[in-house]
Amino acid sequence: MQYLLPEILVAGSALLGLLAMVVVPKVRGLASWVVLVGFLAAGVDAATMWNVTPSLIVYNSMAIDKYGITVTELVLLAGISTILLAWNAEHFGEEFPVLVALSVLGMMGLGGATSLMPVFLGIELLSLPLYILAASRHTPEGGEAALKYLLLGAFSSGILLFGMALLYGATSTLIFVAYPGIASHAQVWLLWPGLGLVVVGIAFKLAIVPFHMWVPDVYEGSPTPVTNLMAFGTKVGAAIILLRILAFGFYGQAGAWGLLLGYLAVLTMIVGNLLALPQTNLKRLLGYSGIGHAGFLLVGIATHNIQGAQAMMFYLLPYGLAAIGVFAVIRLLEQGQDGDRGVILSDLQGMAYQRPWLATVLIVGMLSFAGIPLTGGFVGKFFLMQAALFANRPGFAVGIVVGTLVGLAAYLRPLQAMFQRDGVSERVRTMRWSAAGVMVVAVAVVGTIGIGVYPAPLVHIVSQSANFYWLKGG
Amino acid sequence: MLWIGLLGIPLVGALVVLLLSERAAKVGAAVVAALEIGVFAALLGGAAPSLNLAWIPAWGVRLHFAADGLALFLLGLTAVMTLVAICASKASYGRAYFFWILFMEFASMGLFGAVDLFLFYIFWEAVLIPIFFLLTGWSGEKGRAAGLKWLIMNLFGSLFMLIGVVAVAVIHNQTTGSLSFEISQLTNLPVSSFAAPWLFGVFALAFAIKAPLWPFHGWMPDAYGEAPAPVTALLAGVLSKAGVFGFLRVMLPIFGAELHAYRTGLMIWVAVSLVYGALMALRQTDMKMVSAYASLSHLSMIALGIFSLTAAGILGATFLMVAHGLMVGSLFLILGVVEERLGGREFNGLMGLNRGAPRLATYFLFFALATLGLPGLPGFAGEYMIMQGLVVHAVGFAVVAGVVLIVAAWYMVRLFQGIMQGRPDHPAVADVNVGQVAWLVPLAILVAVIGVWPAGITGHAVPSLYHAVHFAVAQGGIN
Questions:
Q1: Residue B352's Cα: distance from chain center in Å?
Q2: Alpha-carbon distance B217 to B153, whole Å?
Q3: B314-363, pLDDT tens digit by residue?
Q4: B318: Cβ contacts below 8 Å, ≥ 6 apart
Q5: What is the pLDDT of residues B273-285, one digit of tens each?
Q6: Beta bridge mates, A57
Q7: Taking the model in full, what pTM does it have?
Q8: CA B472 to chain centre
Q9: Coil, strand or helix: which one is A55?
Q10: Mutating which of A305, A360, A408, A460 best tests the B interface, going by the most B Cβ atoms within 10 A?
Q11: What does the pLDDT average to over B39-50?
Q12: CB B122 to CB A454 under 8 A?
């Protein structure tokens, strides 16, 4: 049971935060502190479990392994950045940090899941608080975003659940890590539709084309810290559970799903980045870019080799760091005039001259998104390309190149807008730095450049964590 | 140790410059660039050092820099041109400008020194970034579009090259069982006959875009035209060498057999580029464009020397890379001075500036003559060696190159006449001032010294080129 301590800490901090709201309602921001401390404690505790011998617990439904620990650290980073970006934002409501903690708990559960039951529970626990959080600004746009997210989320959950039922019918077990032994003589007419529906259900969460329609509206309408959690945390959760289900549960059938997912990946990379091109609202742009990045992640799954799994896990961190950096910039701009109104490209005018440090953050984040060397994004793309060529799939590599090229112009437009000389926008003039925001951008910039310049430690970590073949024995 | 200085000084210096006041930035940057020249001098004096450290062990990527004869003087060119460009820049550009200039020096040093393919690629793309921001932030009205074009066109080539970089390492892994990006280990790869032309093509495309060679020069007129003169000087003087340098550093060891197999086709291509550049230079009325297309023509000449795959041709190309960098860089800087005096770049008819500015005209004439290949100046020595290499196997190409040299004299004289000679009724312009003489004179002396003593460079370059040429010869079986 001590292996579930990180989960318990996060759940406990959520409950304690809830309690604090009721018991001492006068002390504002107490729940944020409680959840932040809970996140940090969970992060430290998970790190101390790094060398634990991998094992299955809870009737083989959860795994304790380096894969899960890495995921835990990633989603905690997403959670902490979200809490910090919403620091002192009282209009989001006191329940904000509690809901964030519950959502992060769902993501952590996905990291360790080896059975379809925790997969479903994790995805629902991840999503339900996000439906509420999306509307936490109490504006019509927020409500629209939340409703859209809720309807499509419920729809995809239904698909996922139906797929799981079919898989259960085919194999008579929910423990998907046991499927490699069963799948070859399972009832094919239940197995394949089941797998297809499960993948589609998760693809909704991961925002894979053609299941991406909800992303831009929801990203735009939600408060920026919530968008940050969706863009980073949800993506981590969905991507890693898809990898675990496919790469382990359906190991033997890779010939069938590998190429198909590869086509989806290439489609997603190109369409996502293509749609990002004409965007003027920064959050919408990030939404489409997030779709594109989901395509890159999918390449790592579709190659179906150990390098692909490692590359996908690697890619999550530079992507996440760049995302929290850019969302922090948006958040800091929102702390000036006009408040939460969407930040558009013309709001960046003159930023390079008036606010050089803020501009630096945006430059680093965007260059990492674009995959320019000396940033983490480049190493991630390089790793994926290596995986594609090791799998002897040059088509995937070309897809990565085309997707990157298409996305490039989208990422450069905000940078060029910052260098516009004629005048400085009101938002840039009136933006205010906050200590919490500075912390987030510092981590984002240092992390992005750090991974780009010296990726060896992270390569080592993912090579250890993406190795979940120990499950074969158990 | 020297390598740490060579790379660390511009990088740390760039960050320090960011912390200085806007006024002091230029002086600070100049000090950093001068220190860098000092390190290079130390490099010249001692034995060629190398830096070889593990970087990403899991992929066999190493931080491996070496200053062999091929790279040594390109490092020096970078150091000299950066200092001169900083001196020729306006202090009012501010610290961010000088940060990017020094960052570009760092990236260029890394690019010319890298002998690990992964490392080479990192710096290959890293040099794109400072130019993008310099074009975006400190150039004319159309600078932003030019910057976008520069980055997208170059990344188009680079990203496909990245596939090639990874593929080469993966193929090496299939035979040896270990990943390595060390260029010297990637020779004699068992590339399938299907993949070989594709891999060769992606590398050649990236190098041709960066140089640029016809027909991949779409970004060149905009970028050269819009950038401030010191940035254009660095672009044409230093970064354009990266493209042809890539052919020598990467293609010759890895694709020696393919280079030989496609030799005639490659030579036809660069000969077309050579003629195209010269003819385009002849019909421009924008003085910066004359030099831009002249530069394209010269780079084609360098590429022609490389593709001749003879010792003389490659040696000439190596020499001309350095010489051309100094000459064309200086030419762009002088044109920058002229542009500043005139307030425009168009020359129509004869403008007669030499009445008011005789010293400016003299410096201009000197660098124009050097560029057109006057004997005694370095352009001649390089072109002579390339011609010598061509005559052995490809007399036809030697004839084309000879004709282009005549056209080169024509467009350079036309440029000089158009700006400097002719009717005196043009409003008088100020002559060069002391600050400009301070960087013009050392440059002129350097060009003259290299011109009369080319062995100073070729003597250093021969030993390392000997291996390269020998290898190509062994691959292709030519003498």
A1: 32
A2: 9
A3: 889 999 999 999 999 999 999 888 888 877 788 776 677 777 788 888 89
A4: B69, B70, B73, B248, B457, B458, B461, B465
A5: 999 999 999 988 8
A6: A62
A7: 0.92
A8: 23
A9: strand
A10: A408
A11: 80
A12: no
- Choose the closest CB to B57 out of A356, A382, A456: A456
d(CA A225, CA A347): 19
Is A389 an 8 Å CB contact of chain B? yes
Any B CB within 8 A of A397 CB: yes
Which residues of chain A neighbour B59 with C-beta distances below 8 Å? 386, 459
Distance of CA B158 to the CA centre of its chain: 17
The residues of B whose Cβ lies within 8 A of any Cβ of A are 54-59, 96, 118, 121-123, 125-126, 128-129, 132-133, 136-137, 144, 147-148, 151-152, 155-156, 159-160, 162-163, 166-167, 169-170
Contacts A356 to B, Cβ<8 Å: 96
Provide the residue type at B350 as one letter: L
Looking from the CA of A229 toward its CB, the CA atoms found within 13 Å total 31
DSSP string, B452-469: H-THHHHHHHHHHHHHHH
CA R_g for chain A: 21
In chain A, the N- to C-terminal Cα span, in Å, equals 19
Contact A463 B58 (CB under 8 A): yes
The DSSP result for A359-389, as a single string, is HHHHHHHHHHHHT-TTSHHHHHHHHHHHHHH
pLDDT digits (tens, 9 = 90+) for B94-123: 888 999 999 999 999 999 999 999 999 999
In the predicted structure, residue A333 carries a pLDDT above the cut 60: yes
* SS3 category, A219: helix
* ipTM of predicted complex: 0.91
Of A359, A363, A285, the closest CA to residue A322 belongs to A363
Q: Which residues of A touch B197 (CB under 8 A)?
A: none
**Chain B residues in contact with A409 (beta carbon < 8 A):** 148, 152
Mutate to test the interface with A, among B100, B166, B205 (most CBs of A within 10 A): B166
Instruction: Look at residue A209 and tell me whether its pLDDT is greater than 60.
Output: yes
User: Is residue A181 less than 8 Å (CB to CB) from chain B?
Assistant: no
- What is the pLDDT, as a whole number, of residue B477? 45
Asked whether the CA dihedral A295, A297, A298, A304 is positive or negative, the reply is positive
Burial letters for B4-34: b for 16+ Cβ neighbours within 10 Å, e otherwise? Answer: ebbbebbbebbebbbebeeeebbebbbbbbe
Do the beta carbons of residue B234 and residue B85 sit within 8 Å? yes
Q: Report the alpha-carbon angle B200-B62-B42, nearest 5.
A: 100
Distance CA A342, CA A280 (A): 10
Size of interface A-B (CB pairs under 8 A): 78
Q: Tell me which range, A174-183, A464-473, B215-224, is most confidently predicted by mean pLDDT.
A: B215-224
What's the sign of the alpha-carbon dihedral B456, B458, B459, B463? positive
Strand partners, B109: none
Structure confidence by residue, pLDDT tens digits, A414-427: 998 888 877 888 88
Tens of pLDDT, residue by residue over B454-469, are 888 888 777 777 666 6
Residue of A378, A390, A401 lying closest to B163 (CB–CB): A401
What is the DSSP code (8-state) at residue B427?
Answer: P
A401, B162: Cβ pair inside 8 Å? yes
CA A99 to chain centre: 17
Q: Is pLDDT of B225 > 50? A: yes
Q: Can you tell me the distance from the alpha carbon of A154 to that of A160, in angstroms, rounded to the nearest whole number?
A: 10
Using the predicted structure, report yes or no on whether residue B258 has a pLDDT greater than 90: no
| Tokens at B235, concatenated | 């672009």
Indicate the domain borders of chain A.
Answer: 253-474
* Strand partners of residue B61: B56
pLDDT at position B185: 85
Q: Hey, is the C-beta of A419 within 8 angstroms of any chain B C-beta?
A: yes
Å between A23 CA and nearest CA of chain B: 49
